Amino acid sequence: ELIPLTTATATLSAPFLLADTPAGTRVIAEVIDFELAGERLTARMKGTAAADWMTLSTSMIGTLDVRALFETHDGALVYTWYHGRLDLSGGIGASPAYAAPLYESGDERYAWLNKIQAVAKGALSEDGMKLVYEIYEVR
Q1: Rounded CA gap, 5 and 134, in Å?
Q2: CA max distance for the chain
Q3: What's the angle, vertex CA 80, arms to CA 43 and CA 14, rounded to 5?
Q4: How far apart are CA 87 and CA 110, in angstroms?
Q5: DSSP assignment letter at 93
Q6: By CB neighbour count within 10 A (0-12 exposed, 13-18 middle, 19+ buried), where does 58 fall?
Q7: b/e code 6-34 from CB counts within 10 Å (16+ = b)
Q8: If you write DSSP's letter for every residue of 55-92 in order, what string do you get?
Q9: Whole-angstrom Cα distance, residue 17 to residue 57?
C-alpha cells in the first residue's frame, strides 16, 4: 500500500562532471532549493549542504545519491538521504527518476519518519535544473 507523504521539488545548480572515474562519470549537482509540500510533511531545505552525487554509467543510467537537511514548517529538523535510478539514455527529461528516501529526526513530533520506508517517482525538467518527485510511504 502506498500512502501519499509529500511532493518534493529540488532546484539544482549546473552540475560538475568528473569523467572516467573508477565508478563511471560522476555528476555532482548542488541543490539550490529543496521543498517538501504535503499534508503529512511540509519543509524547506536548511543550510546549503545538499547535493546529488550521481554516478553515470556508459549506457547513461544514473545512480542517485542525495542527502539534504530540512526544517519543517513547525521548526523540526529532518535529515533525508536516498538512492535511486535515472535513465538518461533518451536525453534529459525523457524518463522518470525513481528513488527510495529514508528520513531521520530527533524531534519526537517527527519520530514516525524514522520508522518508514518511502518510495518516489519523479521527473527531471528538460533543462536538467528542476526535479519533482511524488513521495509515498510504503505500508
Answers
A1: 8
A2: 45
A3: 85
A4: 33
A5: T
A6: exposed
A7: bbbebebeebeeeeeeeebbbbebebeeb
A8: EE-TT-EEEEEEEEEEEETTS-EEEEEEEEEEE-TT-T
A9: 13
Q: What is the pLDDT of residue 132?
A: 97
Helices (H), 15-63: none
Question: Where do we find the cell 536548511?
Answer: 46
Please write the tens of the pLDDT for every residue from 72-120: 999 999 999 999 999 999 999 899 999 999 999 999 999 999 999 999 9
Q: Is 109 helix (H, G, I), strand (E, B) or coil?
A: helix
Dig out the grid coordinates for 20 from the structure: 572516467
Whether the Cβ atoms of residue 43 and residue 68 lie closer than 8 Å to each other: no
CA 42 to chain centre: 15
Which 8-state DSSP code applies to residue 31?
Answer: E
How far is it, in rounded angstroms, from Cα 92 to Cα 37? 25
φ and ψ at residue 97, rounded to 5 degrees: -105, 140
pLDDT in tens, 99-110: 999 999 999 999
pLDDT of the residue at 55: 97
51 conformational bin, left if phi > 0, alpha if psi -120 to 50, beta if neither: beta
Among all chains, which residue has been given the C-alpha cell 535513465? 87
